[in-house]
Amino acid sequence: MSTPTPSTNPLLRAWYDKETRSVIVQIIAAAIIISFFAYIINNAVVNLAAIGKDIDFGFLWQNASYDINQHLIEYSSTSSHFRAMIVGLINTLLVAVAGIVLATILGFMLGVMRLSNNWLTQKIAYVYIEYVRNVPLLLHILLLHGLIITALPRPKGSYNFSDTFFLNNRGFQMPSPEFQSLFWIVGAFVVGGLAFAWWFSRHAQKVQDATGKTYPLALINIAAIVLLPLIVYFVLGSPIEWDVPALKGFNFKGGMVIRPEFIALWLALSFYTAAFIGEIVRAGIVAISHGQTEAAQALGLSDSRTLKLVIIPQALRVIIPPLTSQYLNLAKNSSLALAIGYMDVVATIGGISLNQTGREMECMLIVMGIYLSISLLISSGMNWYNNRMQLVER
Amino acid sequence: MTKETYAPGTHPSLPPPNNTVGIVHWLQKNLFSSVTNSIVTLISVYLLYLALPSAINWLFIDATYVGETRKDCAPDGACLAFIGERFNLFVYGFYPAELRWRVNLAALLLVLAGAAVLWDKIPARKHLLKFALVYPLIGAWLLSGGLGLEPVGTHLFGGLMLTLTIGVTGIVFSLPLGILLALGRQSNLPIIKYFCIAFIEFIRGVPLITLLFVASTMLSYFLPPGTTFDLLMRVLIMVTLFASAYMAEVIRGGLQALPKGQLEAAESLGLNYSQAVRFIILPQALKISIPGIVNTFIGLYKDSTLVIVIGLLDPLGIGRASVADSAWLGLSTEVYLFVAIFFFISCFGMARYSLYLENKLNTGHKR
């Protein structure tokens, strides 16, 4: 057997050397990528120049001159586009956070139901999960919105809950609080209660680590955060006036309203994501080997303590990474608000503002930047939590 | 009591104890095993009792199946007449009626190509697979015309055929692209690696809606002056890129699950990188990631409904437009349920197939 004679061509020799080759490949790749971007950016510059446009974010300070029906901060049609964007962003965050909370609760319930030894609940959860997962979210949103608009009564025939809450096809009317001057004392007590609970939890942990003695932690903390401020509230003579909605003519006056678009979007996002979270929770619990349960029983732990101290902490480690991506999906999916006219960030700055000013490039950059930041925030928050929950290996 | 004797081995098996067989035992074990369990069962039964009969009444018994306008429908039941009336619209969109045979033929060939890919016991699979490989071209030719067929503008595409067009295109092209991106992300060439990471993370960080907006409003800015580009084509590209980023992450999971020794063993056998990837790495990595891949497909298929926000009319878009028709006002529930059934059948089918494939390919790697 003869060894192959090394090539005399220096280029070929360079190619056969692994190190050199990887450098060559990368230089070629970089050249392709850079020239591609240079090409499309050049195209954009030429095209924009041809129609006399430039990239300018100055329009953000111009008058938006359109209304947003749900605004948590002061907004009117004379506000700027920038303010419209902030209002939209707040609406997006509102529905995303509310959705994450409800989806997590429902999802954990579904996951537990799927593992229940009750045949009926198990099957109900299974049918629910399979139906919801296999139908597009947009359809759920439109269906729920349609149901609210068509199936709920007009304001005149509202479902009336003790003359304070009303449900009709204009949304859910409820009293709005008007804080009186003394209310800050109650607020101070709530903050104090939170601070006390934080200190007390650490203290109780320390005591338990040192002596094994346990306090009824949850009870004491709830008393500090809720009960004490409540007592103070009544002692001060209830310093909140409630503005109760009342039917005037064809619509309700006073109070505040949760609009049907918000309800439809919030419920659809939560129901949809809950189905996925349910499966994640189930998989997480199943992943914990049965030996863990048996060992806990052998130590004499009760069923509820087995679940709380042994199963759930371990299952959470499996659950959290996929849960994070579901939260991210929910936040991004809230952009479907557009389809039913909920004024989120896509509908305001990426929709009406874009159409009014004709600044597609700037508006889309802003919208994408906002979503990228939200995604980064959620994933870094969940990574922090995940690191805390990780197995500490010694 | 009579005493009977049996020769060894002839004793008939005794029936199981009475309290372990029969419906009563089943009920007791599965529904009433404890007090809490019984309460849960009773609550569930009550809730089902509240929901099911009225829903069934509305959807089937009181429903109207034939009619011309909304007025022909019973007020208390579902108005299904509408769906029969618009059925062709839901399936073909605005595709010219006399050319619909082309859509049908494309669908038929799709079934054939799909069967070849999905079912390994089909006769003459080798040839059918070659056919499946060129099917995307044939399908595109049949649907959009040209080369001897009357051209049909893509603005006439709609309904079910639009969903299938987007879904199939996305699935066919996002898998190879996703594999390349995943390999690029795992590569030890920093420029390629960071480019892939940036691409994947950007796409995964923004909603599909914004990408579709970019496709519909801004993409023309980035093309050479004067080029026009079909809207459906732009959407297809965006959907494919979007799905490929998710696909890449799924496949990366599979790649990471492989021990490093596999690549090292392949290299020590003298395989070069592309051989090692094709013969050793990918077959194993793809097998592990099948559930994730199918989930991405299902997600892509469901996401194809989002095209309605830029004005394409898939079944959901047609449903939404129809709901606004003055002759059929207030029918959103019926229409959306109908579309939901269609999506449920296709997506549930995909999920089941993935389970079947997983079991078939499970050669003992699973614990």
Features:
heterodimer; A: 394 residues; alpha+beta; MetI-like fold; 2 domains; four-stranded antiparallel beta sheet; two-stranded antiparallel sheet; 12 helices; 8 strands; globular; B: 367 residues; mainly alpha; 15 helices
Describe this structure in words.
The complex is a heterodimer of chains A (394) and B (367). Chain A is built from twelve helices and eight strands. In chain A, the strands form three sheets. Chain A has a four-stranded antiparallel β-sheet. In chain A, strands 4-5 form a two-stranded antiparallel ribbon. Chain A has 394 residues and is of the alpha+beta class. Chain A has helices spanning 10-16, 18-50, 81-114, 119-133, 137-151, 183-211, 217-235, 260-287, 290-298, 303-333, 345-357, 360-389, and strands spanning 159-161, 165-168, 171-174, 176-179, 240-243, 246-248, 251-253, 256-258. In chain A, helix 3 (81-114) runs antiparallel to helix 11, helix 4 (119-133) packs across helix 8 (260-287) and helix 8 packs across helix 10 (303-333). Chain A folds into two domains: 13-50; 81-175 and 244-389, MetI-like (MetI-like fold). Chain B is globular, with a radius of gyration of 28 Å. With 367 residues, chain B is an all-alpha fold. In chain B, helix 9 (208-218) runs antiparallel to helix 10 and helix 10 packs across helix 12 (273-288). Chain B starts with 21 loop residues before the first helix and ends in a 6-residue tail after the last helix. The mean pLDDT of chain B is 84. The relative contact order of chain B is 0.09. Among the domains of chain B are: 17-54; 90-95 and 152-361, MetI-like (MetI-like fold), CATH 1.10.3720. Chain B has helices at residues 22-30, 35-61, 81-85, 87-92, 100-118, 125-144, 159-186, 190-205, 208-218, 231-257, 260-268, 273-288, 290-303, 315-323, 332-361. Chains A and B meet through helix 2, helix 4, helix 5, helix 10 and helix 11 of A and helix 2, helix 8, helix 9, helix 13 and helix 14 of B.
